[in-house]
């Protein structure tokens, strides 16, 4: 399971990075908060729907989806801090002031994946006070 999910995460990261490199100018605007909020909301919902679909397609059991979500997000979480730090070099076609919008956008993607897994896999809520494990 681990390598398949990690490969999908790497593939998504590569495709996303290339897409932003080619068309990021139209998506990332540091001085347009409404556009940024719409982008964040749409991205959150997209990943909330996409992550469970990916895991179903890979034939993963629902009890492994939380672990799979960490592997799916791992490339984004480990590589995009460098994309933010070197934003003007990596995304030379995008306003350098959009680095913060980009960083937040990547976190929103990851949060959407986790939320999608939580909502789809029937993750149990934490034990209530007094419950025995």
Domains, number? 1
What can be said about the biggest beta sheet?
A: none
Give the low-confidence spans: none
Distance linking N and C termini: 28 Å
Global Rg: 16 Å
Number of extended strands: 0
- Secondary-structure class: mainly alpha
> What's the overall geometry?
globular
In DSSP terms (H or I, runs of 4 or more residues), the helix count works out at: 5
In helices, the fraction of residues equals: over 70%
What fraction of the residues are assigned to beta strands by DSSP?
A: under 5%
Description:
This protein has helices spanning 2-23, 33-57, 65-85, 87-90, 99-121. With 133 residues, it is an all-alpha fold. The chain has one domain (2-121). Helix 1 (2-23) packs parallel to helix 3 (65-85). The longest helix has 25 residues, at 33-57. The protein is globular. The two termini are 28 Å apart.
Features:
single chain, 133 residues, mainly alpha, 5 helices, 71% helix, globular
Layout of secondary structure:
Layout: H1 2-23, H2 33-57, H3 65-85, H4 87-90, H5 99-121
Helix pairs in contact: 1-3, 2-5, 3-5
Give a quick rundown of the structure.
This protein is mainly α and 133 residues long. 71% of the residues lie in helices and 0% in strands.
């Amino acid at each position: 399971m681990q390598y398949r999910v990690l490969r999908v995460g790497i593939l998504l990261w590569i495709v996303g990075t290339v897409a932003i490199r080619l068309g990021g100018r139209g998506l990332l605007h540091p001085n347009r908060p409404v556009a940024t909020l719409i982008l964040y909301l749409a991205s959150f919902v997209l990943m909330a729907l996409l992550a469970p679909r990916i895991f179903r397609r890979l034939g993963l059991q629902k009890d492994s989806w939380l672990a799979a979500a960490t592997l799916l997000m791992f490339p984004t979480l480990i590589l995009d801090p460098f994309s933010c730090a070197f934003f003007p070099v990596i995304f030379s076609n995008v306003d350098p002031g959009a680095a913060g919008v980009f960083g937040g956008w990547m976190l929103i993607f990851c949060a959407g994946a986790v939320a999608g897994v939580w909502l789809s896999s029937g993750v149990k809520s934490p034990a209530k006070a007094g419950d025995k494990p």
